[in-house]
Amino acid sequence: MNWVTISLSAATLFGMAVVISYILGWASKAFYVKVDPRIEAIIEALPGANCGGCGFVGCADYAEGVVLSGAAVNRCPVGGAACAASVAAIMGIEVDESYPQRPIVHCGAHYEDRKGRTPYFGEMTCQAANMVAGVQACTYGCLGFGDCTRACKYDAIHVIDGLATVDYDKCIGCGACGSVCPRNIITITPFKKSRILAVGCSNKDAGREVMAVCEVGCIGCKACAKKSELFKIEDNLPTIDYEHWDAECTLDVMEACEKCPRNRLIFVGEPSPADIAATKDKPLPEVVEADFKTTVDDTEWRG
């Protein structure tokens, strides 16, 4: 190899570099896609959890949805109201009042409450067990194999004595637990108060069938609806009119809760200041058990 060969090689490489640089420069201008700067600003404003709780694939997808498709600015469950306000400011709009989204487990049956249970040797997931008949007699209730626990990135839901239980101190409301529940007993609900009233059962069968499969399931007796207009019975289950419910329960609502023979009207979320004040001097029992005492138990025999 002499200097002539080396010079030709260097010249060839230089020429190729010039041509390729020119092509890349032309392509960068010809195929440039202008990105709305608001998308980048919204991505910066979002918490970056990429949990999918907003209904989009991730934070970047949600940011594009807000700018390009007009998605609501308050759909980020992790960021909450402060994040919604920031996104609204970027978009130059007013944000409606938003509430944190939290899950409610519509089942109150622990292992010992479920009738008709049989040994299950299949894949230990709710998705698999839900396709097998006879795991437990109730076809509505929690299966307790923990799909929701595994889906939660925030250690906010655990299976305790066979029942999915939410830790509301850790929950950010992404909705991952509800999306994997094969029986759809976990609903994601706007918590307009620190705690809300909920129905802890999903069994829509008649009372006799419910009593045959569960010790605590709602029997559709309508006792709650008779006490308060807040409750309506649909498919043998009470529904709650949240538009007219206040955390400071009225007397009729409290009577409805006390009248429920299966204690299926439950409060979930954080206790109210009044509840904390009322129980601050009470010792914590070792075991908390449901009280199924009825008015008959208080009846004085006068025969």
UniProtKB/TrEMBL annotation:
<keyword id="KW-0479">Metal-binding</keyword>
<protein>
    <recommendedName>
        <fullName>Ion-translocating oxidoreductase complex subunit B</fullName>
        <ecNumber>7.-.-.-</ecNumber>
    </recommendedName>
</protein>
<comment type="function">
    <text>Part of a membrane-bound complex that couples electron transfer with translocation of ions across the membrane.</text>
</comment>
<feature type="transmembrane region" description="Helical">
    <location>
        <begin position="6"/>
        <end position="24"/>
    </location>
</feature>
<feature type="domain" description="4Fe-4S ferredoxin-type">
    <location>
        <begin position="162"/>
        <end position="191"/>
    </location>
</feature>
<feature type="binding site">
    <location>
        <position position="181"/>
    </location>
    <ligand>
        <name>[4Fe-4S] cluster 2</name>
    </ligand>
</feature>
<feature type="binding site">
    <location>
        <position position="171"/>
    </location>
    <ligand>
        <name>[4Fe-4S] cluster 3</name>
    </ligand>
</feature>
<keyword id="KW-0408">Iron</keyword>
<dbReference type="GO" id="GO:0009055">
    <property type="term" value="F:electron transfer activity"/>
</dbReference>
<feature type="domain" description="4Fe-4S">
    <location>
        <begin position="34"/>
        <end position="93"/>
    </location>
</feature>
<keyword id="KW-0677">Repeat</keyword>
<dbReference type="InterPro" id="IPR050395">
    <property type="entry name" value="4Fe4S_Ferredoxin_RnfB"/>
</dbReference>
<feature type="binding site">
    <location>
        <position position="54"/>
    </location>
    <ligand>
        <name>[4Fe-4S] cluster 1</name>
    </ligand>
</feature>
<dbReference type="Pfam" id="PF00037">
    <property type="entry name" value="Fer4"/>
</dbReference>
<dbReference type="GO" id="GO:0005886">
    <property type="term" value="C:plasma membrane"/>
</dbReference>
<feature type="binding site">
    <location>
        <position position="148"/>
    </location>
    <ligand>
        <name>[4Fe-4S] cluster 2</name>
    </ligand>
</feature>
<comment type="subunit">
    <text>The complex is composed of six subunits: RnfA, RnfB, RnfC, RnfD, RnfE and RnfG.</text>
</comment>
<feature type="binding site">
    <location>
        <position position="51"/>
    </location>
    <ligand>
        <name>[4Fe-4S] cluster 1</name>
    </ligand>
</feature>
<keyword id="KW-0249">Electron transport</keyword>
<feature type="binding site">
    <location>
        <position position="76"/>
    </location>
    <ligand>
        <name>[4Fe-4S] cluster 1</name>
    </ligand>
</feature>
<feature type="binding site">
    <location>
        <position position="174"/>
    </location>
    <ligand>
        <name>[4Fe-4S] cluster 3</name>
    </ligand>
</feature>
<dbReference type="GO" id="GO:0022900">
    <property type="term" value="P:electron transport chain"/>
</dbReference>
<feature type="binding site">
    <location>
        <position position="142"/>
    </location>
    <ligand>
        <name>[4Fe-4S] cluster 2</name>
    </ligand>
</feature>
<comment type="similarity">
    <text>Belongs to the 4Fe4S bacterial-type ferredoxin family. RnfB subfamily.</text>
</comment>
<feature type="binding site">
    <location>
        <position position="152"/>
    </location>
    <ligand>
        <name>[4Fe-4S] cluster 3</name>
    </ligand>
</feature>
<dbReference type="InterPro" id="IPR017896">
    <property type="entry name" value="4Fe4S_Fe-S-bd"/>
</dbReference>
<keyword id="KW-0411">Iron-sulfur</keyword>
<feature type="binding site">
    <location>
        <position position="177"/>
    </location>
    <ligand>
        <name>[4Fe-4S] cluster 3</name>
    </ligand>
</feature>
<keyword id="KW-0813">Transport</keyword>
<dbReference type="InterPro" id="IPR010207">
    <property type="entry name" value="Elect_transpt_cplx_RnfB/RsxB"/>
</dbReference>
<feature type="binding site">
    <location>
        <position position="59"/>
    </location>
    <ligand>
        <name>[4Fe-4S] cluster 1</name>
    </ligand>
</feature>
<feature type="binding site">
    <location>
        <position position="138"/>
    </location>
    <ligand>
        <name>[4Fe-4S] cluster 2</name>
    </ligand>
</feature>
<keyword id="KW-1133">Transmembrane helix</keyword>
<feature type="region of interest" description="Hydrophobic">
    <location>
        <begin position="1"/>
        <end position="28"/>
    </location>
</feature>
<dbReference type="Pfam" id="PF04060">
    <property type="entry name" value="FeS"/>
</dbReference>
<dbReference type="InterPro" id="IPR007202">
    <property type="entry name" value="4Fe-4S_dom"/>
</dbReference>
<dbReference type="GO" id="GO:0046872">
    <property type="term" value="F:metal ion binding"/>
</dbReference>
<keyword id="KW-1278">Translocase</keyword>
<keyword id="KW-0472">Membrane</keyword>
<dbReference type="InterPro" id="IPR017900">
    <property type="entry name" value="4Fe4S_Fe_S_CS"/>
</dbReference>
<keyword id="KW-1003">Cell membrane</keyword>
<keyword id="KW-0812">Transmembrane</keyword>
